[in-house]
Amino acid sequence: MVEIILRLLDPAVIWVLIPLTAIVGGIYASLKREEIKARGALNHEDIQALKALIQNNKELNKRVESLESIITGIDKELLALKAADELEANRQRVKEISEKMKGKE
Questions:
Q1: Residue 29 to residues 25, 47, 59, 91, 104, Cα–Cα distance (Å)
Q2: pLDDT digits (tens, 9 = 90+) for 40-68
Q3: What predicted TM-score, i.e. pTM, was given to this entire model?
Q4: Is residue 58 within 8 Å of residue 12, measured between CB atoms?
Q5: Between 44-104 and 11-39, two packed helices, what is the crossing angle to 10 degrees?
């Protein structure tokens, strides 16, 4: 489960999902506008629905921006953890090689 979440949070995936979210939101709002135009004049209910959609789209954009900042931070943290693990593994290898060389002398 954690692996799936980490894969979805991969910056390469997020950079694809962010524009798609914006595109889909824009298309949905445009379709709603066209639907309203096709029916005729806007009534009060339609105007309220359109305003709600626009507000919802703005909120979603803010949430996506927040996720972007979180993801980029997580990515840096994961890279730092991986580097620390590799550093410790390299230290262990050097120690083992050093011990083997001392044993051959």
A1: 6, 12, 14, 57, 75
A2: 767 788 788 889 999 998 998 898 888 88
A3: 0.39
A4: no
A5: 170
